[in-house]
Design brief:
Its EC number is 2.7.7.87. The protein is an alpha/beta fold. The structure holds threonylcarbamoyladenylate and magnesium ion (MG).
Amino acid sequence: MSNTTSIPDLSQALTLLRAGELVGIPTETVYGLAADASQPAAVAKIFAAKGRPNDHPVIVHIAGVEQLTDWAQNIPDSAYQLAEAFWPGPLTLILERQAHVSDSVTGGQNTVGLRAPAHPITHELLRQFGGGLAAPSANQFGHVSPTTAEHVRHEFTDDQLKLILDGGACHVGVESTIVSLVGGVAKLLRPGGISRAAIETVLGTAIEHHTDQASAQQRVSGLLDSHYAPRTPLLLGSLSALLQVASREHSNGKKVVLLTQEENTTIAYPQHKMPNNPTAYAQEIYATLRRLDQEQFDLLLLETPPQGAEWLAIHDRINRAAQQKLN
Ligand code: TXA
Ligand code: MG
């Protein structure tokens, strides 16, 4: 986060939030669709605007660690260790909820997800707001997450979303890492902006990797393939597999585009070079998928990026975005 970001006047955002309206907020990961977490009717507007199933829990965003006890109880020491190490930042902690936290936020579970985002505008908004802001990513359910204010504007009508705070392009570009600490046992539920290794270093122990509940539900209901997804079919695979598909489809008159790690000089159809550095790749992937989605291609062909710990969150997202995987 650059410390030169100037903070706009936040009074309109605060007024809307207190009146139970939605506001688009920048975070370092992706933009959020925020509502006052203490007003169930306001949180319900998030689900309606996104077309999201009501039983999916939403993350409550707070200014900092001093607000943990407003929302969670029986907080293990490990939560304070992680919050002190990584907040404000791209880490969400799942903890036992306080009794007052509404079912609209928790999806009816006895846990709550808490995160202190690092973007200076939203950090200041949260500080002035004082409470918590329930905020999922500001996209239609299943669609690509937004990393600019303009992306958010494309997802909702002016009636649904009266104000978007423009904080520029998101620096991290993929969602926060989610760690459950319920019962004092650390579990990685979603890889993201903070690496598993960094978390393990702070905790001094290895953590298990579980798939999160929402993705388990998506698997069960067959919706997995539509998560984080562009509208144009996306195929993920090795370069050799994609080159075969691309030349076949191209000669059938289809408009294809190849997204590769290296420029390929021999092909006759459009290509886009993806970054070789995982930080830059994460910053660009959602914006790239959105842009190509608007260019009337029939098929997006994405080369599987390298393996390795720094690529974990990227693999997680593009695997869910892809309609099909080739080897
Ligand atoms: O980076 C982020 O986390 C972004 C920005 C806006 O903060 N937010 C985000 O929210 O990605 P969303 O709603 O798109 O994803 C939140 C994930 C979901 O998979 C949800 O199931 C999980 O967090 N989650 C939230 N509360 C939970 C809880 N109490 N227990 C288990 N999972 C929870
Ligand atoms: Mg999301």
